[in-house]
Amino acid sequence: MRIGEIAALVGVTPRAVRHYHRMGLLPEPARRANGYREYGVRDAVLLARIRRLTELGLGLDEVGDVIADDEGRELVEVLEELDADLGRQERVIRERRERLAELLGEAREGRLGAEGPVSPQLAGLLAELGDGGVAGSPMAAKDREILTLLDTVVPEEERDRFMELMRGAAAHAPALYARLDALADAAPDDPRVAEAAAALARVLPDGLAVEVPDGGLAETFFGDLAPAQAAAVRQALRLVAERGA
Predict the structure, then answer these.
(1) Of the candidates 51, 79, 112, which is a domain's last residue?
(2) How high is the pLDDT of residue 130?
(3) Alpha carbon 155 to its chain's center
(4) What is residue 134's predicted lDDT score, i.e. its pLDDT?
(5) What is the model's pLDDT at position 210?
(6) Same domain? 139 vs 81
(7) Domain end (from 112, 135, 169)
(8) What is the CA radius of gyration of the chain?
(9) How many domains does the chain have?
């Protein structure tokens, strides 16, 4: 058989056959006097095996390992690993579809917020924050943006804990947003900075007793605040840390 014939017989392309030769998966067959490859039944059987293994999801390196083990012991091990991996993928897909079904329901009922798809924890927090008393507040809008960002970038176990901690402060949000909005054009040494920091520290939970470093996400957050607002938030976090100590 010529390369086109064996490829058609097994159901792959001649290009794939040549690639398997380069990878060392399929040995080069003997050539005719005119230089054309001459494939036999054994070549077709091996090529069919390569095709079946790749269709199962194995990478070509894994296929090579399986083929190299003549007794097939490694094939069982590789297939067991593949089965376990597919099981994990199935669980992830099932969880995503369940979450998607929830989001579709919210969207169809007009309950999906402008922030787009968010975790159930953030959705609950945003619902508690609501719009009452904060409509038109620049600080409220910034807070929702940073919460949505955290919902995406923070690891799930830390994110869930953070959102739960923040729900305790939701009732005080309107008053706090008003204090911080008032600092938009103030200097960092304005006396209202200390007052806003103290008010914010009183409602922040002890679980947020952390010193926020410069750079990274902190730079993204504080860089979007006015100098006095950033000073008030940093001071509030220091007060919470001191309280926890």
Answers:
(1) 112
(2) 64
(3) 9
(4) 57
(5) 47
(6) no
(7) 112
(8) 31
(9) 3
Q: Counting Cβ atoms within 10 Å, is residue 128 exposed (0-12), middle (13-18) or buried (19+)?
A: middle
Q: Are residues 138 and 223 in the same domain?
A: yes
Q: Read off the tokens for 207.
A: 């679980």
Same-domain status, 127 and 237: yes
Boundaries of domain holding 42: 3-68
Q: Which candidate, 85, 94, 177, 60, places its Cα nearest to that of 130? A: 177
User: Would you state the pLDDT for residue 115?
Assistant: 53
Is the same domain home to 130 and 212? Answer: yes
Q: Which two tokens stand for residue 245?
A: 């100590």
pLDDT, averaged in runs of 10, over the chain (245 residues):
91 94 92 89 88 86 80 66 78 81 68 61 73 68 77 73 76 87 94 94 73 52 85 90 78
> Which of 31, 4, 23, 25 is CA-nearest to residue 15?
4
> Any bridge partners for residue 109, and if so which?
none
- The secondary structure element, H or E, covering residue 158 is helix 156-167
As a whole number of angstroms, the distance between CA 43 and CA 197 comes to 76
Q: For the whole model, what pTM was predicted?
A: 0.49
**DSSP assignment letter at 225:** S
Burial of 201 (0-12, 13-18, 19+ CB in 10 A): buried
For residue 31, what are the β-bridge partners?
Answer: 37
Handedness of CA 72, 73, 78, 80 (dihedral sign): positive
pLDDT of residue 77: 74
Give yes or no for a contact between 137 and 104, defined as CB atoms under 8 angstroms apart.
no
Question: 89: which 2 tokens?
Answer: 């993928």
Instruction: Please tell me whether residues 30 and 137 are part of one structural domain.
Output: no
Domain CATH number, residue 38: 1.10.1660.10
